[in-house]
């Protein structure tokens, strides 16, 4: 069998979720030949060095000067057809899922998004994929001559690939008018300042237990002392106490700090889907039975309005002493 | 302008997920239901667009009889009418879902003219397949932008802003178009009591197509094993603060 994997690149380097997708594609077994496709506006952007694939094809077109999801999908479909690929894999990122969904629509084939495992035997493909942002898994059978899937980020560890670097070739894909028209026409840089929630080493978050917009004052104070980002739960944004950009969760930001300090947050699945990447969780909660205590490493039982200012005071005392 | 917004009924799962005995669904006897979060913002956006530009907003769902609750919720916020593609409660796979939605759109457009905008959530909260909106856009031969956090309609075009790690990427689509949106696009309003009363009188058209055989066929659901953690309790109330400081120091986030 032949597998084709779509790789996303940043500044000429293959992104980690794409390396993971390539690793899963190369583990499909049966001596599968794995080809990779990258899209670039110049052949100079071909990935260099070792990759867990046999060959790399660079789809070169001026349309790829900015992100153009349908154009990428058309290039993938063209190459998959030429290779006779029986499996097309992408990273389970926002854009990987978008490109593979376009591929699925163009080919009228099923797509299994965000898979953590795949087993292919003859014409029988079985996948395990995530639901509810990872709070639930689904085992499914895919009925298709060509298996389309994306790989959930961090489901497998990326392997660099052994032996010689893959061969690299270029081709110019044929793109439709619709594909050429659907592209990013402008980039707006994010406002700078403050610690970004997604990249913060420490996140201090408040939930319904904060009680009000003003109730976040002690949380902000502790965050400042720890040079941390401030987060919140969905209940808080729905109440209008904090902007959605602060929301940690399945439909908010996914975080991966050294420690996540969750204050007055019960631990709904929606919230926990956003902080699975945290190395450690400290829950400060008045309710000893709150579900978050089953996912946390440390807990303090008590009202955050009492506990959090006490922690801030103890940090100041430790620093001045 | 005419705007269609597609929504999905999903359970409010709370703290832990419990499955039914056959492992094919979430046990929902003790759970409430809601519109999937991204789509709640889709409904609000559709209503705002029609408030600003005039026209009509229509809400559509594919789901069991009980999903009428979510259609009434959307109409309480301001959608003018609804289409309910009624299922027997079995899950439909993404291709079947997209086909049924497409048929409903074609029927509505044949009677009332094209929708300027068809709005989906970027992905449903439960199944998370990330593809129904894109499939419908392909079938309608209309452009589609996904994951929108901002949307501005000006005459015949829609400016669509998508959040990225470094800021925002902008697409400009010619209408008619399809968009998929994310929570954070707006803050959905709470339905008023008069809004709820009006919603009871708004029309719901029903359709009952056959469910095709799934090509992405769910076999069973599995609740992933937790790490079996039970938090180490550092203390109670303010007295725990010194111990917290010790822990922060041990893990190297306090200098």
What CATH architecture of chain B do you see? 3-Layer(aba) Sandwich
Largest sheet properties of chain B = 9 strands, mixed
Q: Please, what is the CATH homologous superfamily of chain B?
A: HUPs
β-strand number of chain B: 13
Enumerate how many helices of chain A there are, as a single number: 8
Mean pLDDT of chain A, as a whole number? 94
Q: Supply the CATH superfamily name of the largest domain in chain A.
A: HUPs
Low-confidence stretches of chain A: none
Number of domains of chain A: 2
Question: What secondary-structure arrangement, pairings included, does this model have?
Answer:
The complex is a heterodimer of chains A (321) and B (255).
Chain A: E1 2-6, E2 9-10, E3 13-14, H1 16-26, E4 33-40, E5 55-60, H2 69-83, E6 87-91, H3 94-107, E7 111-121, E8 124-131, E9 136-142, E10 147-151, E11 167-171, H4 177-181, E12 186-189, E13 202-206, H5 217-225, E14 229-232, H6 234-238, E15 259-263, H7 269-272, E16 280-285, E17 298-301, H8 304-320
Parallel strand pairs in A: 1-4, 1-6, 4-5, 5-11, 6-10, 7-10, 13-14, 13-15, 15-16, 16-17
Antiparallel strand pairs in A: 2-3, 7-8, 8-9
Chain B: E1 2-7, E2 9-11, E3 33-35, H1 37-53, E4 56-63, H2 68-77, E5 81-86, H3 94-112, E6 117-121, H4 132-140, E7 144-154, E8 157-164, E9 167-174, E10 177-181, H5 193-201, E11 204-207, E12 216-222, E13 232-236, H6 241-250
Parallel strand pairs in B: 1-4, 1-6, 4-5, 5-11, 6-10, 7-10
Antiparallel strand pairs in B: 2-3, 7-8, 8-9
Describe this structure in words.
The complex is a heterodimer of chains A (321) and B (255). Chain A has 2 domains: 180 residues, HUPs (Rossmann fold); 119 residues, 3-Layer(aba) Sandwich (Rossmann fold). In chain A, 25% of the residues lie in helices and 29% in strands. Chain A has 8 helices and 17 strands. In chain A, the strands form 3 sheets. Chain A has a 9-stranded mixed beta sheet with strand order 9-8-7-10-6-1-4-5-11, sandwiched between helices. Chain A has a 5-stranded parallel beta sheet with strand order 14-13-15-16-17. A two-stranded antiparallel sheet of chain A has the order 2-3. In chain A, α2 packs across α3 and α5 packs parallel to α8. Chain B has one domain: 3-Layer(aba) Sandwich (Rossmann fold). In chain B, α2 crosses α5 and α3 packs across α4. The longest helix of chain B is centred in the middle third of the chain and has 19 residues. The mean pLDDT of chain B is 96. At the A-B interface, α3, β7, β8, β9 and β12 of A face α4, β7, β9, β12 and β13 of B.
């Amino acid at each position: 069998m032949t597998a084709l994997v779509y790789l996303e690149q940043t500044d000429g380097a293959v992104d980690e979720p794409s390396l993971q997708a390539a690793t899963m594609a190369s583990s499909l077994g049966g001596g599968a030949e794995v080809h990779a496709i990258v899209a670039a506006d110049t052949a100079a952007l071909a990935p260099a060095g070792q990759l867990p694939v046999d060959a790399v094809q660079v789809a070169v077109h001026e349309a790829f000067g900015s992100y153009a999801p349908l154009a990428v999908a058309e290039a993938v479909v063209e190459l998959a057809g030429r290779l006779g690929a029986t499996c097309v894999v992408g990273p389970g990122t926002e854009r990987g899922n978008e490109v593979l969904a376009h591929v699925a629509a163009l080919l009228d084939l099923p797509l299994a998004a965000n898979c953590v495992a795949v087993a292919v035997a003859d014409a029988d493909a079985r996948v395990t994929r995530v639901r509810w942002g990872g709070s639930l898994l689904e085992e499914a059978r895919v009925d298709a001559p060509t298996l389309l899937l994306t790989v959930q980020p961090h489901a497998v560890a990326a392997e660099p690939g052994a032996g010689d670097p893959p061969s690299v070739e270029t081709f110019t894909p044929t793109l439709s008018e619709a594909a050429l028209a659907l592209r990013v026409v402008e980039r707006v840089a994010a406002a700078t300042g403050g610690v970004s929630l997604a990249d913060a080493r420490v996140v201090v978050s408040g939930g319904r237990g904060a009680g009000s917009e003003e109730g976040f004052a002690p949380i902000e104070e502790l965050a400042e002392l720890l040079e941390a980002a401030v987060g919140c739960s969905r209940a808080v944004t729905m109440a209008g106490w904090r902007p959605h950009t602060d929301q940690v969760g399945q439909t908010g930001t996914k975080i991966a700090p050294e420690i996540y300090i969750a204050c007055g947050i019960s631990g709904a699945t929606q919230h926990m889907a956003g902080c699975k990447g945290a190395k450690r969780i400290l829950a400060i909660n008045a309710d000893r039975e709150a579900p978050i205590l089953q996912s946390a490493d440390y807990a303090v039982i008590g009202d955050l309005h009492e506990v959090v200012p006490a922690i801030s005071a103890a940090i100041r005392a430790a620093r001045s002493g | 302008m005419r705007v269609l917004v597609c929504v999905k009924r999903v359970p409010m799962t709370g703290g832990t997920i419990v499955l039914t005995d056959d492992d094919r669904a979430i046990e929902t006897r003790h759970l409430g239901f809601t519109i999937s979060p991204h789509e709640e913002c889709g409904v609000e956006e559709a209503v705002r667009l029609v408030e600003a530009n005039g026209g009509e907003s229509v809400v559509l769902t594919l789901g069991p009889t009980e999903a009428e609750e979510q259609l009434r919720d959307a109409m309480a916020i301001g959608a003018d009418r609804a289409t309910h593609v009624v299922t027997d409660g079995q899950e439909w796979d993404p291709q079947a879902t997209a086909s049924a939605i497409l048929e409903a759109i074609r029927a509505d457009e044949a009677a009332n003219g094209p929708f300027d905008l068809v709005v989906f959530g970027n992905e449903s909260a439960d199944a998370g397949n990330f593809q129904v909106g894109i499939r419908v856009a392909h079938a309608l031969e209309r452009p589609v932008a996904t994951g929108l956090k901002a949307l501005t309609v000006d005459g015949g075009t829609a400016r669509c802003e998508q959040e990225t790690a470094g800021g925002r990427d902008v697409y400009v689509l010619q209408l008619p178009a399809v968009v998929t949106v994310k929570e954070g696009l707006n803050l959905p309003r709470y339905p008023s009591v008069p809004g709820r009363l009006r919603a009871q009188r708004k029309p719901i058209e029903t359709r009952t197509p056959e469910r095709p055989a799934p090509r992405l066929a769910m076999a069973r659901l599995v609740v992933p094993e937790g790490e079996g953690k039970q938090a180490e309790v550092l203390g109670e109330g303010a007295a725990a603060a010194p111990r917290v400081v010790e822990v922060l120091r041990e893990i190297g986030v306090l200098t």
